[in-house]
């Protein structure tokens, strides 16, 4: 299950972040995953919670934002959201497009407070 290894690398990042701030603890971490990143949000949340539970990081929570695929039409420059199967430009019908979003796997924020 690769969501579990993603969850643990997110947690490592959080640990690294709070290690440089003594007396503080992380309460939440925001993650943005694109539709093309092939990550199951529920599995990621489940794996994350399983690692945090009963650890010194409890009650750290994860906030997952899912991003649709976005395409830009190479013929008319229209940008549109789509799923991975429909790539036809809604403005001109062209099939020539470039993927401009949807492959993200980013940590967007780490919320820290006084311990
Ligand atoms: Zn177009």
What can you tell me about this protein's structure?
- With 115 residues, this protein is an alpha+beta fold.
- It has a domain at 2-69 and 103-114: hypothetical protein PF0899 fold, CATH 3.30.2320.
- 26% of the residues lie in helices and 37% in strands.
- The strands form two sheets. A three-stranded mixed sheet has the order 2-1-6. A three-stranded antiparallel sheet has the order 4-3-5, with no helix packed on it.
- The longest helix has 18 residues, at 2-19.
Structural class: alpha+beta
- Series of H and E elements: HEHEEEEE
What would the principal axes of the Cα set say about the shape?
A: elongated
Number of strands: 6
Please state the oligomeric state of the protein chains shown: single chain
Rounded average pLDDT: 93
Helix content: 25-40%
Supply the CATH architecture of the domain at 2-69 and 103-114.
Answer: 2-Layer Sandwich
Beta fraction: 35-45%
Report the total helices.
Answer: 2
Bound ligands? zinc ion
- Outline the biggest β-sheet: 3 strands, mixed
CATH class of the domain at 2-69 and 103-114: Alpha Beta
Radius of gyration (Å): 18 Å
For the terminal residues, how far apart are their CA atoms?
Answer: 33 Å
State the CATH topology of the domain at 2-69 and 103-114: hypothetical protein PF0899 fold
* Low-confidence parts: none
Strand order of the largest sheet: 2-1-6
């Amino acid at each position: 299950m690769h969501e579990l290894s993603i969850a643990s690398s997110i947690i490592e990042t959080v640990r690294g972040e709070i290690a440089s701030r003594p007396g503080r603890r992380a309460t939440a971490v925001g993650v943005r995953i694109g539709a093309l990143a092939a990550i199951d949000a529920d599995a990621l949340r489940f794996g994350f919670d399983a690692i945090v539970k009963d650890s010194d990081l409890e009650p750290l929570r994860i906030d997952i934002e899912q991003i649709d695929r976005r395409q830009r039409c190479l013929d008319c420059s229209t940008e549109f959201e789509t799923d991975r199967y429909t790539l036809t430009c809604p403005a001109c019908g062209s099939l020539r497009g470039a993927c401009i979003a949807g492959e993200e796997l980013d940590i967007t924020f780490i919320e820290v407070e006084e311990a």
